[in-house]
Design goal:
Layout: E1 19-20, H1 36-48, E2 53-56, E3 59-60, H2 68-84, E4 90-93, E5 96-98, H3 103-106, E6 118-122, H4 132-141, E7 145-149, H5 159-167, E8 172-175, H6 176-179, H7 185-197, E9 202-204, H8 213-219, H9 223-227
Parallel strand pairs: 1-2, 2-4, 3-5, 5-6, 6-7, 7-8, 8-9
Helix pairs in contact: 1-2
Length: about 240
């Protein structure tokens, strides 16, 4: 049994964001929540912060590749516990896909979110793959809308490349953890730059475990984030 007291709920900090779009809350499917208790701690935190919906995005790549059955089973078990605990939040699933050659074979069956068939994609953190533009083209040709996860975290993503991604109409999603200095100052500065320019379409936590909750809570108070709240597309996903 889990014990979450509704009396401890603070004034919501993320009520304007409404929908959490990047996380690894499904227990036991990737490198995210290891147990149901960890997953419920994360869900209750989002409810505290004023979120109404969470889109779970487990990894899907050649290194972490949970099956459809594994994802669905974990989702159903977590949903059942959310209802049992009366956590006032709706859970659904999508995925976080690595841009790699193997992604092309997955294209007919990608897990999407939102009315525009958004697909959350990530790049290699250290090297920009030569095929990235081709895969994005293939996704768009298949009537998906790719959303680039955490562009601020890629070591090679200078301001020119960030501008290129934005100007080609690629929705960008920054991590709250970046704003809390969870990945170093370079990621902080890049995330702040994207916010200053108004190039951020979605904001997500990329939270993997409850230990990251204090950092996410801190990031939700970031002045630049709060200044740009009305520009995010997260609320369109309700």
């Amino acid at each position: 049994m889990w014990f979450f007291s509704k009396k401890t709920i603070p004034i919501p900090l993320a009520v304007e964001i409404v929908v959490e779009v990047h996380n690894h809350v499904l227990p036991g499917v990737d490198d995210g929540a290891a147990t149901m208790q960890e997953a419920l701690q994360m869900m209750f935190f989002w409810a505290e912060m004023g979120y109404q919906k969470v889109v779970a995005t487990p990894h899907q790549n050649t290194y972490m590749n949970p099956t459809t059955e594994q994802i669905e089973t974990s989702y159903q078990k977590l949903t059942s516990q959310i209802q049992e605990q009366e956590i006032p939040i709706f859970l659904t699933t999508a995925a976080e896909y690595l841009i790699e050659p193997e992604l092309k074979d997955r294209i007919p069956h990608l897990r999407t979110f939102g009315p525009k068939r958004y697909v959350l994609v990530e790049l290699d953190f250290w090297h920009l793959p030569v095929w990235w533009e081709r895969i994005l083209f293939d996704l768009q040709a298949a009537e998906y809308t790719p959303v680039l996860a955490h562009p601020e975290r890629y070591e090679y993503a200078d301001r020119e490349l960030l501008r290129k991604w934005y100007e080609r109409g690629l929705p960008l999603q920054i991590n709250l953890l970046s704003l809390a200095n969870a990945y170093g100052k370079k990621a902080v500065h890049a995330a702040e730059y994207l916010l200053e320019k108004g190039w951020v379409s979605f904001v997500g936590s990329d939270m993997h475990r409850p230990a990251q909750i204090p950092a996410v809570r801190e990031a939700l108070q970031h002045k630049l984030l709060r200044k740009r709240l009305s520009s995010f597309l997260n609320p369109t996903l309700l």
